[in-house]
Amino acid sequence: MGANVGKSKVTPLDEAAEDYAVSVRRLHGLVDYFTVNVSSPNTPGLRELQSAERLKELLGAVLPAAGGDPVFVKFAPDMEEASLLESIEIVVGAGCQGIIATNTTNTRPGKTDRLGEKGGLSGNPLWELAKQQIGLVLEAADRRLPVVGVGGVNSPGRAAELLSMGCAAVQVYSGLVFEGPGLVRRINKGLST
Question: Annotated catalytic sites, by residue?
Answer without folding.
Answer: 40
